[in-house]
Write a structure and sequence with these properties.
The protein is of the alpha/beta class and about 400 residues long. Helix content is about 40%, strand content about 15%. Helix 1 runs antiparallel to helix 3 and helix 4 runs parallel beside helix 5.
Length: about 400
């Protein structure tokens, strides 16, 4: 990255990092909607193509608006390099394709984003890269699954939808003792709540689609890490494979980042209030939220994260039938599997996002029939609670 932002607090980096003002003196970051760039001379073109001189060539490789987003997110995560991608899945694909080869092996936490599962089990398996799944919070499980061919430990914490929390520092120590890389999907927390690189992780993955945008407008992703792994290797895959972020989407994400800290704080406050309320209802069997003292990794979560985040899930008495009733009784909440939006969303994992799992897989992932996931938004807390109460109280 071109500048050091060490002197700036996170909130300042989120607003100012990465913008190199042009000669026009613009205050807000400009959108460079251009596919290619021109050179002063044939010699300059040759130097750029030859890699002897830095600078833009073509927007599949680099674009100033995308670069501004990359520099800002790198500053927030505390990484040397960031590569922006067309989606969160593209970020995971680019990381795996850049750093793994046929015959390599991944150890991954079991409760990861469903499509990540499909990518690992169907497509990486097809090119000879195998994945073993372990319990996120059980370190000896991770250790036992490591083979001579293992290259990557892959974790998502807190997990979706039951918010299990993994110990990033312990996983990083384990990875490094065995010469492996720790990759952490930081989608649920964002750098506003948790910075995996500072805890020892080697690579951070983002679906910018979620909290980085925060307002449900664009699909995008990013990979953050050091200048070799990410700046050279992941970037090398991206420029050839073309899973590039568009300048317009980068601009939307830049604007999202400016309010990231405020939003994550507000998501966490609403979610904690909701979790505390749910926990004392007769209709509710159990609540999963890392900010509750009843959460099995409460101490770890409070040490590792600034706050507990916006995702709350809970099990209602009466299984699927009652869970569907509670969901259908809401009037304001959006019935959708998306998360990381200002709008609160509600979903039944067992019949949607996790519907393809076998009964055994559901049991291992804690996906009970009565489980409901709420991605708590930024509406007034009273309105969120009242809407959920219609199916839960009285
Ligand atoms: C949504 C999501 C992804 C995938 O991101 P897309 O932008 O939808 O491709 C990956 N990981 C997690 C945790 C997610 O929630």
């Amino acid at each position: 990255m071109t500048e050091s932002y060490d002197d700036w607090e996170l909130a300042t980096r989120a607003i100012r990092a990465g913008h190199h003002r042009t000669a026009e003196g613009e205050h807000s970051e400009p959108i460079f909607t251009t596919s290619s760039f021109v050179f002063q001379s044939a010699a300059e073109a040759a130097a750029r193509f030859g890699g002897d001189e830095p600078g833009n060539i073509y927007s599949r490789f680099t674009n100033p608006t995308v670069a501004c987003f990359e520099e800002r997110l790198a500053a927030l995560e505390g990484g040397q390099s960031c590569v922006a991608t067309s989606s969160g899945m593209a970020a995971i694909l680019a990381t795996c394709m850049a750093l793994l080869k046929s015959g390599d092996h991944i150890v991954s936490s079991r409760s990861i984003f469903g499509t990540t599962n499909v990518l690992f089990n169907k497509f990486l398996a097809k090119v000879g890269i195998e994945t073993s799944y372990v319990s996120l919070s059980n370190l000896s499980d991770w250790e036992a699954a490591i083979r001579p061919e293992t290259r990557i430990l892959y974790a998502e914490t807190p997990s979706n939808p039951i918010t299990e929390v993994g110990d990033i520092r312990a996983l990083a120590d384990l990875a490094h003792a065995r010469g492996l890389l720790l990759v952490v999907d930081n989608c649920f927390c964002t750098p506003a709540l948790q910075q995996p690189l500072a805890l020892g992780a080697d690579i951070v993955i983002h679906s910018a689609t979620k909290y980085l945008d925060g307002q449900g407008r664009c699909v995008g992703g990013a990979v953050v890490g050091d200048s070799q792994l990410v700046g050279e290797e992941v970037f090398g895959f991206l420029r050839s494979a073309g899973v590039t972020m568009s300048p317009f989407n980068a601009w939307v994400f830049l604007k999202g980042l400016e309010t990231l800290q405020l939003r994550m704080k507000a998501h966490s406050e609403n979610a904690l209030a909701l979790a505390l309320w749910l926990e004392q209802l007769d209709a509710v069997e159990r609540v999963h939220y890392p900010g509750l003292k009843s959460h099995p990794q409460y101490d770890l979560a409070m040490r590792q994260q600034k706050s507990a985040g916006g995702i709350v899930s809970f099990v209602v008495k009466g299984g699927r039938e009652q869970a569907w009733k509670v969901i259908d009784a809401t009037r304001m909440l959006s019935i959708t599997a998306n998360l990381g939006d200002t709008k609160t969303t509600i979903t039944h994992p067992a019949s949607t996002t996790h519907g393809r799992l076998t009964d055994d897989e559901k049991a291992a992932a804690g996906i009970e029939e009565g489980l409901i996931r709420v991605a708590v938004g930024l509406e007034a807390y009273e309105d969120i609670q009242r809407d959920l109460a219609s199916g839960l109280v009285g």
